[in-house]
Amino acid sequence: VHFYAPSQFTHQGVLGHPDGIAYPGVIGGKKWDQEALRRELQPVIDFQKTHRVPIYIGEFSAIRWAPGAERWLRDAIEIFEENGWDWTYHAFREYHGWSLEHGPVKEDMQAKSNTVRKQLLLNYFQRNDLDKE
Questions:
Q1: CA pair distance 25, 109, nearest whole angstrom
Q2: Is the previous residue joined to 18 through a cis bond, with omega within 30 degrees of 0?
Q3: Beta carbons within 10 angstroms of residue 121's beta carbon
Q4: What pLDDT score was predicted for residue 91?
């Protein structure tokens, strides 16, 4: 599964989407918050329950300058985690727009050693206990 809903928010400033779209909020005429993300992912939840299979979110992200990007990431990861899904952030050092090492200002191309978005993901990574295996 790849997850970028709503794309007007996650891809703002690229692919012809305008900038300045905040999450949570009304996006494309619909209220978007964690419950809306959960509803968007309900077919995946249903598939997992019906077929009793593991789920892997192979890509997800919100462009770094999106107002509320950290909240969107946290809300999405919380849904993934509550369902026991594996996930991979898109994409490390591929494009500065998805970068965890660049701040939230679109024009700022200076990589930082730490950002709020990077710390958010590191906090979730630390929950993995590799000694259990």
A1: 27
A2: no
A3: 17
A4: 84
